[in-house]
């Protein structure tokens, strides 16, 4: 695992955008794995800037989301499909039919999860997967205790994660859904390049476990230690316990 410490999110965003630009220059129909949360926002802004400057086209790219809340109405602003469109995919030339996420309103949840796995496989797998990390060490919504061999499935969110994400729901933890559909740890590990971003001291313990802890389902991100091509980009605060 490659660990890169930078002064702040602007420098991190620039390095990640370089990697995406290189990938799309070599492989215009590359498959991107997109993450929600606040960590990748600076990356999306930088990619939009480079797109507007004519440096990157996403016209032939495809994108898969890591996860989705269960039960939010289709037009809810915090539905991850809507979040990513507003933050990134709707601001570039990535056709909306090329963006897929787990179906959080499916009646038949196991079938929807299996279909999502099949869609990723049919696209040839993810070339570059962006990841944030939860303060409890989750990636996507694989909470502590998630099987390292897990695939896309329904999960219950922990109180900690619902509290962390309440800021997106007007500060009201009760408005945060209790369940989600999420790519599993093995799904994420199938991507060819994992790029995890973390900034701020609230992530320092999770980052310490990710980089220096034993691989354990109690800190799900530690599974990345087994990935042949994983890059972790940190600011000084997130790296402060290394
Ligand atoms: C959510 C998302 C994760 C994300 C995490 C951290 O729980 N499902 O994919 O990594 O939040 O979010 P943030 O980047 O806002 O700290």
Question: Please, could you describe this protein's structure?
Answer:
There is one protein chain. Helices cover 30% and strands 17% of the residues. The strands form 2 sheets. It has a 7-stranded parallel β-sheet with strand order 1-10-9-6-2-3-5, with helices on one face. Strands 4-8-7 form a 3-stranded antiparallel β-sheet. The protein has helices at residues 9-26, 41-52, 80-87, 109-122, 159-165, 185-189, 204-212; strands at residues 2-6, 31-34, 62-65, 67-69, 99-100, 128-131, 153-156, 179-182, 193-198, 230-235. α1 (9-26) packs across α2. β2, α2 (41-52) and β3 (62-65) form a beta-alpha-beta unit. The chain has 7 helices and 10 strands. The protein is globular and about 45 Å long. The relative contact order is 0.18. The model has no long low-confidence stretch (mean pLDDT 97). It is α/β, with parallel strands linked by helices and 242 residues long. It starts with a strand and ends in a 7-residue tail after the last strand. It has a single domain (2-8, 10-134, 142-235), classed as 3-Layer(aba) Sandwich (Rossmann fold). Bound molecules: 2-amino-2-deoxy-6-O-phosphono-alpha-D-glucopyranose. 2-amino-2-deoxy-6-O-phosphono-alpha-D-glucopyranose (GLP) binds at residues 35-39, 66-67, 132-134, 140-141, 161, 165. GO terms for molecular function: glucosamine-6-phosphate deaminase activity. It holds the Pfam family Glucosamine_iso. It catalyses: alpha-D-glucosamine 6-phosphate + H2O = beta-D-fructose 6-phosphate + NH4(+). Belongs to the glucosamine/galactosamine-6-phosphate isomerase family. NagB subfamily. Its EC number is 3.5.99.6.
């Amino acid at each position: 695992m490659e660990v890169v410490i930078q002064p702040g999110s602007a420098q991190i965003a620039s390095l990640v955008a370089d990697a995406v630009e290189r990938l799309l220059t070599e492989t215009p129909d590359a498959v991107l794995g997109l993450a929600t949360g606040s960590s990748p926002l600076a990356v999306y802004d930088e990619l939009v800037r480079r797109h507007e400057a004519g440096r990157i086209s996403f016209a032939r790219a495809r994108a898969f989301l890591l996860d989705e809340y269960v039960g939010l109405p289709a037009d809810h602003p915090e539905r991850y499909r809507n979040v990513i469109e507003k933050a990134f995919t709707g601001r570039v030339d990535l056709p909306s039919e090329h963006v897929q996420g787990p179906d959080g309103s499916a009646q038949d949840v196991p079938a929807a999860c299996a279909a999502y796995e099949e869609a990723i496989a049919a696209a040839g797998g993810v070339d570059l997967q962006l990841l944030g990390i939860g303060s409890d060490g989750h990636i996507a919504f694989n909470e502590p205790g998630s099987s390292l061999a897990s695939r896309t499935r329904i999960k219950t969110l922990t109180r900690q994660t619902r509290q962390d994400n309440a800021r997106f729901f007007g500060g009201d933890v009760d408005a945060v859904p209790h369940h989600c559909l999420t790519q599993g740890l093995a799904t994420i590990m199938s991507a060819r390049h994992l790029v995890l971003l973390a900034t701020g001291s609230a992530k320092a313990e999770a980052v310490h476990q990710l980089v220096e802890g034993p691989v354990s389902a109690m800190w799900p991100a530690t599974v990345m230690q087994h990935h042949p091509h994983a890059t972790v980009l940190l600011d000084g605060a997130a790296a402060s316990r290394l």
